[in-house]
């Protein structure tokens, strides 16, 4: 077996070597040389192709600088690197390839620009002055992203034909009072001014500038209040006393935003009481909205009482207006507090609003639990309680007793129950509002709004 396998291998080897030419070293060298030459030839051709493309690309993107001479002429080409000495002549390679040296005293100005811009200038010099030529150059400028040059050509078109609609449209012009104007010209003619890319009236601009100045003044208080409040709530007694002294000196209305931001939501009731005291030190009506807010919405009654004391002493009309607005609040608790506040202030101008608030409507939410299948039905002289139990059939006598209340019917504890939440609007008679009306008018006409309006129409003067 082994000898037959060896003979077969020898036969295959003889066939393999006989079917191929003899191996020669010089043939190997020749094959390698030919392969290398072919590869080098391909590489050279590829290099020349890329190099040619690069020349074309650079030719398109080559700079085209301009030197304008004082004599009125100009030289275009590529500027050489900046000279080390400022007095040295300027060197430029012209479009024809010549290197030119120009003395600086002969130069009006030097401008560096791209080849596409140079081409635009060349096209401008070749224009015949017709609308069609300017339009074609405007379109060429658009395709080459030369937006400013496109606008130049469009303006040249409308200077030739003022009614050229398409050029006017692209330029953003519109007819105003029979004349073509830009948007800026139209808005200025209407009395508007432009501020931060927005058009507004001069009055609005004045308010904005005032608000900016005020906001800058308000911002300066934030770090001060933050530090003083940290001293007040810290453990250092000396700093606590110092912070109280600093808070006692606050009289600037610009401090109110910082005070509201940092002290109004504080959980410490002593901090909120101090907050109300500081607001009371600020003259004018600037602090009234913050004080009314504490009176209406603070959960701590001493804070509300302290706020009302400051409001009462200020006799501010702004406080009356804010409390009247609170009579329409969705919460009945706030309505009642507003009525008590108006009663304390004693301003009879609030009477009509109090009459409107005698009875207010508020949404009340409640939950109801229902039992599934709780009902009655009759069939074949039998009455069934549909609670899901097929054995609960009643006689007519029992059914009659159930529906007349003689028998208390309890649903099965095994029936499924569902809880639903409802929100309904409920009219509420406000006793605090009525008390305020009695105090301000000396009359008690109950909750009859019509009687109050009739009485007030006679006695309001």
TrEMBL record:
UniProt xrefs under InterPro entries = ARM-like (IPR011989), ARM-type_fold (IPR016024), PBS_lyase_HEAT (IPR004155)
Extract the Pfam families matched here: HEAT_2, HEAT_PBS
Protein's UniProt keywords contain Lyase: yes
Q: Recite the UniProt keywords alphabetically.
A: Lyase
SUPFAM superfamilies according to UniProt: ARM repeat (SSF48371)
Q: Which domain of life is it from?
A: Bacteria
A Gene Ontology molecular function term for this protein is:
lyase activity
Q: What protein am I looking at?
A: PBS lyase HEAT-like repeat protein
Q: Which organism is it from?
A: Thalassoglobus neptunius
């Amino acid at each position: 077996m082994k000898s037959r396998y060896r003979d077969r291998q020898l036969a295959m080897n003889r066939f393999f070597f006989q079917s191929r030419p003899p191996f020669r070293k010089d043939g190997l060298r020749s094959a390698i040389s030919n392969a290398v030459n072919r590869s080098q030839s391909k590489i050279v051709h590829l290099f020349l192709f890329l190099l040619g493309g690069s020349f074309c690309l650079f030719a398109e993107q080559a700079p085209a600088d301009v030197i304008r001479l004082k004599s009125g002429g100009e030289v275009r080409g590529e500027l050489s690197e900046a000279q080390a000495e400022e007095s040295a002549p300027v060197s430029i390679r012209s479009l024809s390839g010549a290197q030119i040296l120009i003395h600086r005293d002969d130069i009006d100005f030097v401008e560096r620009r791209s080849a596409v811009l140079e081409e635009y200038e060349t096209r401008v010099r070749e224009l015949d002055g017709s609308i069609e030529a300017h339009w074609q150059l405007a379109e060429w400028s658009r395709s080459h992203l030369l937006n400013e040059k496109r606008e130049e050509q469009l303006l040249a078109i409308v200077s030739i034909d003022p009614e050229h609609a398409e050029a006017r449209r692209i330029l953003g012009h519109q007819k105003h009072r029979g004349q073509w104007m830009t948007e800026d010209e139209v808005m200025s003619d209407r009395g508007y001014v432009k501020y931060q890319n927005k058009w507004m009236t001069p009055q609005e601009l004045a308010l904005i500038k005032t608000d900016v100045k005020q906001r800058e003044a308000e911002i300066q208080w934030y770090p001060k209040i933050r530090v003083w409040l940290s001293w007040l709530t810290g453990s250092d007694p000396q700093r606590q006393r110092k912070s109280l002294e600093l808070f006692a000196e606050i009289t600037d209305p610009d401090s109110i935003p910082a005070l509201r931001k940092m002290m109004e939501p504080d959980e410490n009731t002593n901090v909120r009481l101090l907050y109300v005291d500081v607001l009371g030190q600020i003259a004018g009506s600037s602090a009234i909205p913050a004080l009314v807010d504490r009176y209406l919405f603070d959960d701590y009654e001493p804070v509300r009482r302290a706020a009302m004391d400051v409001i009462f002493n200020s006799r501010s009309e702004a406080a009356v207006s804010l409390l009247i607005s609170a009579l329409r609040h969705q919460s009945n608790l706030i309505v009642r507090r507003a009525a008590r506040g108006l009663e304390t202030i004693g301003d009879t101008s609030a009477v009509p609003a109090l009459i409107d608030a005698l009875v207010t409507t508020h949404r009340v939410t409640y939950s109801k639990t229902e039992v599934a299948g709780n009902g009655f039905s009759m069939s074949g002289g039998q009455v069934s309680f549909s609670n899901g139990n097929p054995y609960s059939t009643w006689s007519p006598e029992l059914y009659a007793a159930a529906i007349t209340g003689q028998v208390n019917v309890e649903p099965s504890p095994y029936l499924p129950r569902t809880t639903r939440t409802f929100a309904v609007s409920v009219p509420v008679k406000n006793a605090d509002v009525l008390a305020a009306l009695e105090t301000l008018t000396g009359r008690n006409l109950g909750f009859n709004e019509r009687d109050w309006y009739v009485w007030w129409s006679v006695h309001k003067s």
